[in-house]
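Q: May I have one protein plus its fold?
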Amino acid sequence: MAHPKKTADIKPRSSEEPLSRKTSRAVKNLGLIFLGSLVFAVGLQGLVIPHGFLSGGVVGVALIVQYLMPVLTMGPVYFVLNLPLLLLGWFTVSRRFMVYSIAGMALFSLACTLVQLPPFDIQDPILATLLAGVICGAGSGLILRSLGSAGGLDILAVYLNRRFGLRLGTVFFGANALVLIAGAYLYDLEKALYSIIFVYTSGAVLDAVLAGFNRRKLVYVISDRSQEIADRIMKRVNRGVTLLQGRGAFSGRDKEVILTITTMTELPQLKELIFAIDPGAFVVVNDTLEVLGNRHGRLKVY
């Protein structure tokens, strides 16, 4: 993309990262994992378990075991069920991710032990599933904003995201559906049906936490005054612009198509600027799930 500002010469960075920066990053990632685990545990202890709802993934399997055999608590069962996934992640994702994930499992178990609160005073099961989905989805999203996870389907989801580009929330929803079907057969059909709302809500909130902070608007502009509009966008809105080559199917004339990325707050100013220059411009505004590169965000490598 063209950009109005001149870029200074960039000196090559040393491959060795300072120890202080590594320590700061580790503290930040562990802090995100623990905070997310606390938030998830609040939803689990305050809403999911008191209402007898099912969760998805490894947590869901552990809950089914606890409901059917109360003598087996969720913590040890959750740890044992995670062992095969830990092996998968250790050999296919990255050692750094797995070290954080092992620490995340310990922090998640600690959070579930520390958080002992009375059930939320919500009688309506639908409202309870919605709130539980928001809380637990936000907790999962905070955990996955780190460079690790708390075990469970997080490891499988990151593996499939890295290998096949599948969105994390989609992976969770698909895998969780299998757990809910098993829960409906082995435990309680009505609870499993309510839990579908919980799983769907938590998956949507998870995606919102992960990608919502980096959502932008993709704008296409077709105009006979494309260069003038592009120059004004770069100078006034301070956004990069790419000029694409296009051709009108009816007229057969070549035209330059402006492509730019902007935020919701800048969008009204951008549209006003475009139509002030060319009232007959054709503008298309698209939502984006995520934008990476330049000033918009960096790819997170697990």
Observations:
- The first helix runs from residue 19 to 51.
- Residues 215-287 form a domain with the Alpha-Beta Plaits fold (CATH 3.30.70.120).
- Residues 52 and 191 are 7 Å apart (CA to CA).
